[in-house]
Amino acid sequence: MVKKQRAFLKWAGGKYKLVDALSDYLPEGDRLVEPFVGAGSVFLNTHYDRYLLCDINQDLINLYKIIQSQPEKYIREAKAMFVPSMNDKDAYYQVRSEFNQTQDPLLRSVYFLYMNRHGFNGLCRYNRKGGFNVPFGSYKKPYFPEAEIMAFAEKAQRAEFKCIGYEQAFALTQPGDVVYCDPPYAPLSTTASFTTYVGAGFSLDDQALLARKSRHTAIDRGIPVLISNHDIPLTRELYHGARFGTIQVQRNISQKGNGRKKVDELMALYDDRYHSEND
Asked: Which CATH class is domain 16-57+163-278?
């Protein structure tokens, strides 16, 4: 059995635990395109010849490009931050302040990993002005993921990284591609709030536009698209015309602040090649 590769970043909604089951739904192809790459667990644990990995988070894409091109230098710089004196509230807020003031890609990338591992719950969150605003996490001894960074750097030699939105990512697809979409989760109710990852977040309109774009990419261009999301009536309606599968997830989702509800993961596959072969 092949050992799964962990991402080097902590990430809300990461797919590490689901990747084996999720991979069963991914069609074969030459290149995997991910418009929402996140921490990259699907990229790390699939076996396509090439990858196009996209995200609207500029810090994330810069970090991946630096690790792709100069992993040893990056590890040397980042590891120096993982010392006892830096696992301190004042030190963390000083780094966060410097991160928000610098535009240097390497420095921001080093600070990004430090904050990811020392900040609260590994969250990645920005304020309206674009400032990183996650509080200190108070962990006993944050882990420095050296082996995971090297594994990512090795696999990244087969990847291209782009800081673009999902619509631009779809525009770059070509015959032989397979698209996997892991958008921010749809809200469980009209009153539920969900994490704003970058900027204004991902609205219900975005959820609907993504579904439409996926459907048309499969039907008009013959490029299969797999989307994962909460398995709720809203997403089953949004992804009409897709083939559905469900992955059992041990995840508790707070709803309206009281009580907890287990929500499975819906796999929605648009693949017009399947329909044409089986109609």
From this structure: alpha beta
Provide the whole-model pTM: 0.91
Task: From first to last of the 279 residues of the chain, give the pLDDT tens digit.
Answer: 568 999 999 998 889 889 999 999 999 999 999 999 999 999 999 999 999 999 999 999 999 999 999 999 999 999 999 999 999 999 999 999 999 999 999 999 999 999 999 999 999 999 999 999 999 999 999 999 999 999 999 999 999 999 999 999 999 999 999 999 999 999 887 555 544 444 457 888 999 999 999 999 999 999 999 999 999 999 999 999 999 999 987 655 444 444 456 789 999 999 987 554 443
Q: Where are the alpha helices (DSSP H) in the chain?
A: 19-23, 41-44, 58-69, 71-79, 89-101, 105-118, 146-155, 166-171, 204-221, 233-238, 272-278
The third-level CATH classification (topology) of the domain covering 64-148 is: Adenine-specific Methyltransferase; domain 2 (1.10.1020)
